[in-house]
Write a structure and sequence with these properties.
With about 170 residues, this protein is α+β, with helices and mostly antiparallel strands. It has four helices and eight strands.
Amino acid sequence: MLLKNILITATILVMTCMQAVALQVTIGGSDTESPQNSLTITEKNFSCFQSLQCLIKENPFQKSNLDEIRLNSNQTRNYVIEGTSKNEEVYAEYDSSGKLIKATVVQRNIAVPRSISMVLAQGEYQSYKMIGNEVVIQNFDPYSMMYKIVLQNEDEVRVEYFDKYGTPRNRIS
């Protein structure tokens, strides 16, 4: 019975999300919005993404710009949420009771934390311009956030990695 209720609620969630995305495009979802403002997954809602029940109840996808949001179950009775957009990808897998098993979020070309901006504005990075970035978040854990920053100085391009506090890190595995 619980499984049936979760499937019905999940189906309603997916249908609502698709309508929200369609309405956003129709009513005026704009490419001129800053990518940071259009992200669905932020540190504020990481805790909700830890539980399928919270996602169903809170529905953070309502104002999403994710082009494709799928929630399905497979043969092992786990549930998978997948979503993609220009700046964001999410994959999350939950067990049959709705508890998070694993998740990966990738966000591209977003506003980086002030701590990283400050590091880039001084020392060896000061002559470089950031031409792109990506943050990878594992299991909706704010401490797992790893930023890949692409820098350019004339013809030289370099890639640096930082945690959210601006501490340089080794390459993302």
